[in-house]
Amino acid sequence: MQEELLSNKVAEFEETMKDMYLIFKVDDQLYGIEIKYVIEIIGLLPITYVPNQEEYVKGIINLRGKIIPVIDARMRLSKPQKEYNERTCVIVISIDDFLAGIIVDHVSEVAVINKDQISPLPPTYEKIDERFFRGVANLNERLVLIIDCETFVKPDRINL
Amino acid sequence: MNEVQKDPMFEVFMSEAKEIVNSLERIFIELKEGNRNFDVAVTEALRFFHTLKGSSAMMGFDNISKVCHRVEDIFVCMRDEGKLPINLDNFILDMLKLVDFLTIQINRIENLQQPQDAENIEEVLEKIEMSLAENGKAQTESEKRYHIRLLFEEGWEMENLRAFLIVQNLKQYVKVLEYLPSDIEVNMASSEKIKKDGFFISIETLLKKEDIVKLFENFAWVKDIKIEEVSEKASLTKEISSWQNAVQSTHKLINVNIEKVDKLIDLIGEVVITFSMIVQHQEIKTDENSSFKNLTLQMSKLIRELQEVAMSMRMLPLSSTFQRLKRTVIEMSAKLQKPVDVHITGEETELDKVLIEHLTDPLIHIIRNAVDHGIEDKEERLKKGKNITGNVYISAKNSGSEVVISIEDDGRGLNKEKILQRALERGIINSPDDIGEDEIFELIFQPGFSTKEEATEYSGRGVGLDIVKNSIQKIGGRIFVESEKDRGTRFTIRIPLTLAIIDGMLIDVDGNVFVVPLSSIVETFKLEKQQIVLENEVPFVYRRGTCFSVIDLNKIFYGNDIRNKEKTYYLGILITNGEKNGILLVDNMISQQQIVIKTLPAILKQVRGISGCTLLGSGNIAFILDIDALLER
């Protein structure tokens, strides 16, 4: 009986997690990442530049002994560069067993967005890389672009 | 992970089964070499087959348990009815095939594959069964020879004199042939040996084992008695070494998941780094409280020890790898009708588990070459005035931060003319003058190089020494070859003790820290600007009669030429990978230290010239240079 209750609780929790998004800001625009990818949010750590990478890969950081690559959301989204400040933070995410950090202007909230709130991107946006987005959500009359973590973080092509 | 694998029962079965097949393999190899008494081997093998039969039946692996059951019957016949195989050598080879079959089955089970068809092994089993001669062993009433090992209770002291007492007493009843250590009357130090390994006696008597045991009951300090009946010629010294091996393998062991060990090592690495951050912290550095300084000193000692212990947990002796090599030689020697003796030294040398896994195949390849190409057939050896039996020497030893493994044969040696001719044919060199006398043998490591005209079962199947060299380089090792006509060939392989830790020199490249593996540094020196010659934008340096190409790390990694910097002199590091040399141009040298190697995150693009990274005491990241890649540029 107890176990059943517990497993129900877990299922319930996963169910709620499914629609939860971490909302962050770059240049006043809101973006959302599914919360299941997010490990933690940290302040900016010293970044070691790695030669021969895509421009948006800023380098690697030492997160308590783990070496993880960090990418600049601003540059990945082809936005003008800006100096990092005290509100700049790194969202550490985990996809298929690897960790990566995304540098964003600032993290604003965790919000629940139901599937039916998400609609596809209109094809008119010329300068937008559609691969990065799963759609647009309307959150209290503010538009949130839902990010596809995998294509966003993984390089366009890995040359081995 | 699959459900089955998580089952602890399954894990216990796997590790036990693997241990059993390894032990079986060892028993048969030692039997083949005459280092093991036949009856003892039969009893032991029987016990192992019986255990394996039971556990595999329990786990539902009928395929294994059925085969074991058949073999058990054969061994029971041999033990109880005194039946003997007609040809011992063939019998051993068949048994080894059987052990192989079991090994394959076990591996398949571990990888959750379907078991292999038992048909192939059926043939072997039948052959073994047929080969048992009908005639029973002749029962003799003659005196038998026994080897005895006595372990003494601790705390009695004067072990040597007690041993002497035993020998004197024993002489009244039996013929004492030999005892070890033999200098117990005069050498007090022998007492320590007895404490450690036990006291060994060789006797000849008509008494039965049980009666002999009774003889020792008068001596209170005897804790454990081990008696083995041996053949006429068995020497006590040989027996001792096999017993000692047995003693060593009964060290208390537990099986630990390698991931857990890796995790532990990672964590300790973090502790090391965090601790050095604490020590270097400003508030603490400026604190003159000396008791605190003492504490940190003690702490750093402890941490270093902890790190060493953790690293040693991944270390395994090379013995099982060497055993496989020995076995390869035994099989080949039987097939090719070439008698070959294998001599092994240093099999207790330890190496990182991961390195050992990568090393086995290259070593087997070299061994095959040695027996197949190197050692001549009987007639040729006779003609050359050599002993008919060829020799292969396999050895391993520690040398600083490296392990040196060598494989040597006393065969015909490499044929310089043939190698040169082949290299010319293949276009590897253009003329014989292109290459120095001592570089000729190095040619055999070139891709597509083989001096053997036709492929045999053991070689010439497209896998060449270039692959061997590659796989050894992959684990950070180096391989060298020496050869003398009609005297033999020797391959020497040098491998770093572990992949995870290296000695490195920290250098500064444009404000970034890089690590040069110390093993690849020849020398360091200052360079004046005009010493760097620039021809068509290609920089090189002439030094002590040799011209070296210059590797400007600033340019390679950050795109800016170091020579544009306002500097009075540059720092050069002469590096080598054993084959090629080059000079690294760097801004500064920082320090020398041990570093823990970490791989770069997989989603980064590979950087040519960087093999990994490490964390420094400050918490900063430093890249480790890939010397081979830099020299290939």
TrEMBL record, chain A:
Gene name tied to this protein: cheW
Family matches, as InterPro entries: CheW, CheW-like_dom_sf, CheW-lke_dom
Domain CheW-like: 18-158
Pfam family, one: CheW
Organism lineage: Bacteria, Bacillati, Bacillota, Bacillota incertae sedis, Caldicellulosiruptorales
This protein's name: Chemotaxis protein CheW
UniProtKB/TrEMBL annotation, chain B:
Principal subcellular localization: cytoplasm
SUPFAM superfamilies for this protein: ATPase domain of HSP90 chaperone/DNA topoisomerase II/histidine kinase, CheW-like, CheY-binding domain of CheA, Histidine-containing phosphotransfer domain, HPT domain, Homodimeric domain of signal transducing histidine kinase
Annotated EC: 2.7.13.3
Keywords annotated in UniProt: ATP-binding, Chemotaxis, Cytoplasm, Kinase, Nucleotide-binding, Phosphoprotein, Transferase, Two-component regulatory system
Catalytic activity: ATP + protein L-histidine = ADP + protein N-phospho-L-histidine
Pfam families linked to this entry: CheW (PF01584), H-kinase_dim (PF02895), HATPase_c (PF02518), Hpt (PF01627), P2 (PF07194)
Sequence ranges assigned to domain HPt in this UniProt record: 2-116
CDD domains: HATPase_CheA-like, HPT
Domain (CheW-like): residue spans on this chain: 501-633
InterPro entries in alphabetical order: Bact_Chemotaxis_CheA, CheA-like_dim, CheA-like_homodim_sf, CheA-like_P2_sf, CheA_P2-bd, CheW-like_dom_sf, CheW-lke_dom, CheY-binding_CheA
Intracellular or extracellular location(s): Cytoplasm
Residue numbers carrying Phosphohistidine: H50
Highest taxon listed in the record's lineage: Bacteria
Transmembrane intervals: none
Coiled-coil region list: none
Domain Histidine kinase: from-to ranges: 298-499
Top EC class of this enzyme: transferase
General function of this protein: Involved in the transmission of sensory signals from the chemoreceptors to the flagellar motors. CheA is autophosphorylated; it can transfer its phosphate group to either CheB or CheY.
Name of the featured protein: Chemotaxis protein CheA
UniProt organism field: Caldicellulosiruptor diazotrophicus
